[in-house]
User: Which sequence fits this backbone?
């Protein structure tokens, strides 16, 4: 009988402390602890985030292993995020992961957070086929990535200003909905009319696969100032959320379809926190069906930051003996760069 491969995944790039256990490519546990301490500040406070990671790290490793019914001695390797993200947060997870692996005498595998988001499509079968165009939309990034094969990431388009998730968070803040804003706008949008207000769609001339979301945020601000200086009703709030969301989703869907058409790629995928958005999921599904494309969307719990995606990519790197030296450091602005 061949020996099982048991991978521990660690995610601490921002304000989620998460640990997962994957055995032979199957997920056995994925504990995600969101740090609610940031809510009162309207955004993530980096120093508070790293302190919370320090406090949560060991109990969550224990919880993830207990839930997976795995003892530490059974672990084959530890995979940990090394960037991009908040430096203090990354350092906690990376240094814990390296020390834990060293103590157990097993390999450590450093993982790129944005590459791992794409590999959230490889947690549950059926996995998508290559070549593949993935739209990765998170709080810090909006990227169109062409993968011709496993571990090959070609950045074909990205945002030149705000990320899609950042636009959701900033608009939510100006509407007084709190942080993180994406899920709140999504919930309000369900009760609203997406055609109520014609917010602009930003298609950049000469940059077919590029994005810009700073203008839409300003449009919502001006719309509020000009039309509702004294506050809004519940219905108006729902309509603004639905119309804003429709504008962002239209651009995301159209650019992904354009990329797949121009590159002649029939497989598309979604990743990142914003891909938990209900309208993005339904509109992308509708458009893919119409265009005869195969679409892969991870379960919502694997879209927002989680360690299952780190374990999924770490597992595949392990199979290729792609280990990291213990001298590997955290890189806050780590770029997609894996070519194994
Ligand atoms: O991938 P993620 O968890 O963390 C980063 O790597 O940034 O993405 C977080 C982003 C936040 O901006 C959050 O507001 C957004 O994903 N988000 C959503 C939804 N759920 C999370 N945006 C729109 N609709 C949602 N349902
Ligand atoms: Zn993320």
Assistant:
């Amino acid at each position: 009988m061949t020996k099982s491969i048991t991978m521990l995944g660690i995610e601490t790039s921002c304000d989620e402390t998460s640990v997962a256990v994957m055995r032979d490519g199957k997920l056995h546990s994925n504990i995600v602890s969101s740090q609610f301490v940031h809510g009162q500040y309207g955004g993530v406070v980096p120093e508070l985030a790293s302190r919370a990671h320090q406090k949560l790290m060991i109990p969550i490793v224990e919880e993830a292993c207990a839930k997976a019914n795995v003892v530490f001695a059974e672990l084959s390797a530890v995979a940990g995020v090394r960037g991009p993200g908040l430096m203090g947060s990354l350092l906690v997870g990376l240094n814990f992961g390296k020390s834990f692996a060293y103590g157990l005498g097993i390999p450590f595998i450093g993982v790129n957070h944005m590459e791992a988001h794409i590999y959230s499509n490889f947690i549950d079968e059926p996995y998508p086929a290559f070549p593949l165009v993935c739209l990765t939309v998170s709080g810090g990034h909006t990227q169109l990535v062409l993968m011709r094969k496993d571990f090959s990431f070609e950045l074909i388009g990205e945002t030149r200003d705000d990320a899609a998730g950042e636009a959701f968070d900033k608009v939510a803040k100006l509407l007084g909905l709190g942080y993180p804003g994406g899920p709140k706008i999504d919930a309000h949008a369900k009760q609203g009319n997406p055609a109520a207000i014609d917010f602009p769609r930003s298609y950049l001339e000469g940059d077919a696969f590029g994005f810009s979301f700073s203008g839409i945020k300003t449009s919502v601000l001006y719309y509020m100032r000009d039309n509702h200086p004294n506050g809004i009703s519940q219905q108006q709030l729902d309509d603004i959320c639905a119309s804003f969301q429709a504008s962002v989703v239209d651009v995301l869907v159209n650019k992904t379809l354009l990329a797949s058409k121009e590159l002649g790629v029939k497989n598309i995928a979604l990743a990142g926190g914003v891909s938990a958005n209900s309208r993005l999921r339904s509109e992308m599904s509708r458009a893919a069906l119409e265009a005869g494309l195969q679409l892969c969307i991870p379960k919502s719990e694997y879209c927002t930051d989680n360690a299952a995606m780190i374990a999924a990519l770490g597992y595949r790197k392990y199979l290729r003996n792609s280990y990291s030296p213990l001298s590997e450091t955290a890189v806050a602005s780590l770029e997609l760069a894996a070519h194994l």
